[in-house]
Amino acid sequence: MIKSLLPSDYDRYLFCEGNHFKSYSFLGAQVIKTDKLSGVRFAVWAPKAKKVSVIGDFNNWDENAAPLKYLEESGIWWTFIPGLQEGALYKYLLVSPDGKELVKADPYGFYAELRPKTASIVWNLNKYQWHDDTWQTKKRKKIIYQEPILIYEVHLGSWKQKAGGELYSYREIGEQLINYAKEMGYTHLELMPLAEHPYDGSWGYQATGYYSLTSRYGKPEDFMYFVDQAHRVGLGIILDWVPGHFCKDDHGLRLFDGTPTFEYNEPWRSENLDWGTANFDLGRTEVRSFLISNAVFWFDLYHIDGLRVDAVANMLYLDYGKKPGAWIPNVYGGRENLEAIAFLKRLNETVFERFPGVLMIAEESSAWPLVTKPTYLGGLGFNYKWNMGWMNDTLNYMALDPVFKKYHHDYLTFSLMYAFSENFILPLSHDEVVHGKKSLLDKMPGDYWQKFASLRAFYGYMIAHPGKKHLFMGGEFGQFIEWRFAEELDWHLLDYPMHQALQNYVKALNHFYLSEASLWEADHHSDGFTWIDCHDNTQSIVSFIRYSKDQQDFIIVLSNFTPVVRYDYCLGVPKQGEYIEVLNSDGSDYGGSGQLNANLVATSVSWHNQPYSIKLKVPPLATTYLKLKKGFN
After folding, report:
1. Which among 112, 397, 523, 588 could bridge 411 via Cys, Cβ 3.0 to 4.6 Å?
2. Are the C-beta atoms of residues 465 and 426 closer than 8 Å to each other?
3. Catalytic option among 310, 521, 523, 586
4. Is 363 annotated in the active site?
């Protein structure tokens, strides 16, 4: 019986080889319950430890009560404690090669005490009854590149709070957040990291428990319920995930057995000075099993629909965040981290082999080629990448006084030079509304009215630009101050007409996007986009056409980024007939000045390299959408 409790030879071999991608199925605290036996098997990888024992509330934290046995040639220690049940608190006590005692949380712990406490908790993750079979079946069949994707990014602890700043549970906030996101027209919620982390101010990006859902908001099955309910209303869940680096708190992964275990052995590679963290050793086979298993874990046991992989550039470049002379080139003399490249390729191959239809999104801030191309074509294998260039250029452009915009028109148009080189998501993320960068609304120049008008115009331009969409919470109603992780959003602003009007506009814009295949069906192909005029810098106007796969289905988009109304503006169009203004961000219902258009009949006057043209009134600081009236195709 005892032999049957051992981690199998096959599991140990695959783990050490770097190819066990469900290592959470045998490492950590596994609750075992059969007709003949019940208890918990503990297994931990600590290859250089001289001694390991499990201590907990069940043995009075006695280091001698439950020693673990070493399994030769695997670095894995294990024991079985009969009668132990779910809910027990535990840690590992390890003796390092130099005789120092270390007390560590379980790297594979499935649950943990609420910070600042640090013990792992024995937990069974297989007891929740899922009800999302229909969702999962549809997800596997989706061609996501031809689907609308509107992502609402949320930090659960500061979206809304109870009186006095108390946090909502996963179940409590789910009732509000899921319905709100769905009503607003979003297709996905992206949640900032939910792996256990000791410091709230890291926002979850510096984790200790990669397999432990944070206890700040409740229990694992509470979050499973959250995901289940999101799927019930047709909302996908994306998690931020951080495989590049981890925090250095004593109870965490750093120097786990007294030596560099999860991190690189060389200090110049392991120390991440910019963030005060440690970099994972992406070339170590056991670390590869640990991290890729963790990605699979969130898809497998929590049914999530995507991972946004944080700080990919930090992994890809040996000199990332390093001063000259403080790093060593690879074997070819370059700055590329060859181990990281191999890791990312294997990660994406593994995820898509097991979970077709999910999202693997790279937050990659450099010009690394082929990030979203398949590995068999030499790519990294992600299916989406954040378009950081578009984000930086357009936000810099929008912050300019309209008088100076004409000198920087390329900020607005340059992204179309590379828009189809990758499968892009256009991100307006939390990183853009912190650390003195101002909120999106406050970035806009001009007076109170102009700020709102500019933001509406910008959102209209973003929705029409090729690429999927991403907006951080609060942006939809005009949060005026920067995001504060310890406080809830300023929902009281909706008592003010302009903020309520902005929210109404974003809702209408989102639903309009969902209804128009031309805005998403050919996002990643040049056939889906044609400039009408990208050269009108003197008036700071751009105009273009978005097509669906059916070239007869198109929308004309015009954005004016000055507060000047342009009368009798001549615009080239591809078809003859009557054009209808289907959405205008200057509508009075949205807080605009009400400069609208009607009876736009195309004439045979060729303009902008188009065979026909219309004359219209261009509203100030606005984006307007035009469609050919039915019957003229």
Report:
1. 397
2. yes
3. 310
4. yes
